[in-house]
Structure formats: structure tokens, C-alpha cells
Amino acid sequence: MFVGCGSACFHATLKYTTQLLDELPMLYLCALVLYALIEIDKDTKYGAAVPLALIAFQGAITCIYVFWIQNPIFHQVAFALTAFGGVGFGLKRLREMQLSARTWRILSRLHLLGHVGMWGGFLAWNVDNIFCHRLRSYRSHVGAPLDVFFQLHGWWHVLTAYGSTYLLLWVHFIRLARLGHDHLFTIKYALGFLPYVAMDTPKKIE
């Protein structure tokens, strides 16, 4: 929600201050995911060390980005490091657990669709950056409503939002599996395409 609000503010104003509202919450969200995967058990293992380390790391990145290196590439590198750290810890946790075939299918699907969304959005964003003027002429040529297919920066937001949702559900389900509750839950879809974790309804035996 915070990422979406920040992104809306930035695209409405195109100012650097609101750009920070768009980009920095992405880092903080990845840090929370990383913490959830490191301290995955009921009892914390490292106490205050992990949250303090993550706060210090994200605080340093924020200060550098705000006051020193005001370059989006710096943010992208910092985001990639945090995001890959989360994915890496997620895969590490999976190797530590014995999963049922059902849970493995759910996690594999969530992981695959998450990466398809994220990397598909990343591809759309880069194509838009490289071929911006050509895409703009295509949009003018085809007109509405077909021009929406050439709004690749918009598709970057749609695809990464969809992909990050699947990856967050992947992390959620890993935690459920770690705590032994995965058999009680499943993935359902609101409106047929918006995934969420829900209690699994047992099938009635007639």
C-alpha cells in the first residue's frame, strides 16, 4: 500500500522528493521480508541483532541516496541486493524442510509466477527506457485503446506488482510450512486473478 501511494505521488508530481516515496518503501519491504525469513521460527534466534543490522543497512542506504548519490542506479543495486537476499534465504529455508507434494506444488507455482512477473516487468521497463521515442510514435499511430499495449512503463508497474504479490505469498507460505500449518491453508483468487492465502476448505464426502 505504501509503495503504491508513493508511486502515485511520484508520477503525479515527477519530483525527486516524491520519487523517494516511490523507491525507498520498496527497500524497506524487502528488508521486512528478509527479517521474516531469517527469524522464521516462533522463538527469535538472534534477538535484536538482525533488526538492528537491517535498520542500520537501510538507514545507510537512505542517507546515501538522499544526501549523496542521487542516482536511480544506486537504488536499483541496493534493491537488488536486498531482494536477492530475501529470495536466497527463502530457498535456504526450503532446503531445510521436508515438504508435502501439495505444499511443494503451491510454493513452486508462487515462486515461478513471482519471477515471471518481476522479470517480465523489468524487461518491459528497460525496453521502454531504450525505445521510448519509438514507442511513443507507435502509441500515436494506433490510438486508443490499443495504445495501452505500448505503455510499457505502466506494464512495468502492473507486472512487478503482480510478481511481488506472488513472491510475498511465497514467503508467507514458507513460514506456514516451517510452523507446520501449511496443510491448513491454500491459495485462492479474488475476482479470479488476485491471489491470497486462505484457509483450505475440506471437501465434503457424499
Helix/sheet category? mainly alpha
Helix content: over 70%
Strand order of the largest sheet: 1-2
Instruction: Work out the helix count.
Output: 7
- Taking the alpha carbons of the first and last residues, their distance comes to 43 Å
Q: What is the element string, with H for helices and E for strands?
A: HHHHHHHEE
**Which stretches are low in confidence, meaning pLDDT under 50 for 5 or more residues running?**
none
Gross morphology: globular
* % residues in beta strands: 5-15%
CA-based gyration radius:
20 Å
- The averaged pLDDT comes out at 87
Beta strand count: 2
Main beta-sheet annotation = 2 strands, antiparallel
Q: If you had to describe this structure to a student in words, what would you say it looks like?
A:
The protein contains seven helices and two strands; from the N terminus they run H-H-H-H-H-H-H-E-E. With 206 residues, the protein is mainly alpha-helical. The protein has a two-stranded antiparallel sheet with strand order 1-2. Helix 1 runs antiparallel to helix 2 (16-38) and helix 5 (101-130) runs antiparallel to helix 7 (152-178). The radius of gyration is 20 Å and the shape is globular.
Brief synopsis:
By secondary structure, this protein is mainly alpha-helical. The chain has seven helices and two strands; from the N terminus they run αααααααββ. The radius of gyration is 20 Å and the shape is globular.
Q: Can you give keywords for this protein?
A:
206 residues, 7 helices, 71% helix, globular
How are the SSEs ordered, and which strands pair?
Blueprint: H1 2-13, H2 16-38, H3 49-67, H4 72-96, H5 101-130, H6 132-142, H7 152-178, E1 185-190, E2 194-199
